[in-house]
Amino acid sequence: MNKGSKIYSAEYFDYVDLKSSNSARIVVPLLMSWMSCRSVADFGCGRGVWLSEWAAAGVADIRGIDGPYVNQERLYIPRADFLAHDLTSPLDLGRRFDLVQSLEVAEHLPPYAASAFVELLVKHAPLVVFSAAVPGQGGESHLNERPLHYWQGLFRQHNYFALDCIRPHIRTIREIEPWYRFNMILYGAESAIAALPSTVQAFRIPEGARLRSAGDALWYARRAGLSLLPRPAVSALARAHSRILASSARGRRG
Q1: Residue 50 banded pLDDT, cuts 50, 70, 90
Q2: Is residue 5 one of the residues assigned to a domain?
Q3: Is 54 inside any structural domain?
Q4: What is the spatial distance between Cα 184 and Cα 239, in angstroms, rounded to a whole number?
Q5: Is 66:44 a contact under the CB 8 Å cutoff?
Q6: What residues pair up with 161 in beta bridges, in sequence order?
Q7: Cα first-last separation, the chain
Q8: What 3-state class would DSSP assign to 32?
Q9: Residue 222's domain spans which residues?
Q10: H, E, C per residue of 147-206
Q11: Which of 22, 53, 197, 213 is the most buried (most CB within 10 A)?
Q12: Are 205 and 165 in contact, with CB atoms under 8 Å apart?
């Protein structure tokens, strides 16, 4: 994420780690049951919580990419597997992975960077697990909240097609954070989709059809309420919320 260290504090990353760990422990095995992943890259990985779950699932070849604001003393993955890089800038790792993921990252990048960011993802893998904040979701320094079909269109420019195969399996699992349950989509190149199980291919979005928003009553109420507030107020609320939860988690560990 293109995050400045003055905005995204240690408390922010503590909050992200707390919210990601349970979700990753459930979602990663589900994805592994559908595909043979020997290598995974995570663009906007934070401290690497999701990648640590991929490693625990048997994926030895992992790579995390995020900005220099990430404290590398507190990574969940080996330092050698982390690359500090501004995600608004071009990058070529000189190889491709079996799978790339980018989860709740793209909304932190300025709108002008959206197309190039999607190009960055598809350049590095034939399959991409992607989620990004939708309008009204709220969070710290969200610069580009967009409906799901906006990103669908950007992936389609590279002949990557949407498969809405993840959300039906996880949307009612409360241990998974709602932004993953309601936003997570699998995108794939034609050849990669053909190699997936037929039960996964069945969730491919037909040509010309748009991805639809999903959520429960609480999620829609949250979005409706936050959409009425100015962005600075939403960001301030998110920072206060993350500080409280991160402090509570540290207290329980202590």
Answers
A1: very high
A2: no
A3: yes
A4: 23
A5: yes
A6: 188
A7: 30
A8: helix
A9: 10-253
A10: CHHHHHHHHHCCCEEEECCCHHHHCCCCCCCHHHHHHCEEEEEHHHHHCCCHHHHCCECC
A11: 53
A12: no
| Strands ordered across the beta sheet of 127-131 | 82-84, 61-66, 39-43, 99-103, 127-131, 185-189, 160-163
Q: Over 80: is that where the pLDDT of 235 sits? A: no
Could you tell me which residues come within 8 angstroms of residue 159 by beta carbon, excluding any fewer than 6 positions away?
189, 190
Task: Kindly tell me the sign of the dihedral angle through the C-alpha atoms of 196, 202, 205, 206.
Answer: positive
Question: Is 90 within 8 Å of 116 (Cβ atoms)?
Answer: yes
Total number of domains constituting the chain: 1
H or E segment to which residue 61 belongs: strand 61-66
Domain-embedded: residue 145 = yes
Q: How far apart are CA 104 and CA 238, in angstroms?
A: 14
Residue at 54: amino acid letter: W
Residue 144 included in any domain:
yes
pLDDT of residue 228: 56
Per-residue confidence band for 41, with pLDDT thresholds at 50, 70 and 90: very high
- What span, in angstroms and rounded, lies between the C-alpha atoms of 98 and 145? 28
This prediction has a pTM of 0.86
We report the CATH number of the domain holding residue 135 as 3.40.50.150
The first and second tokens of residue 190, run together, are 């034609």
What pLDDT digit, counting tens, does each position of 132-156 carry? 999 988 777 789 999 999 999 999 9
Residue 115: the pLDDT is 98
Q: In this predicted structure, what is the pLDDT of residue 244? A: 46
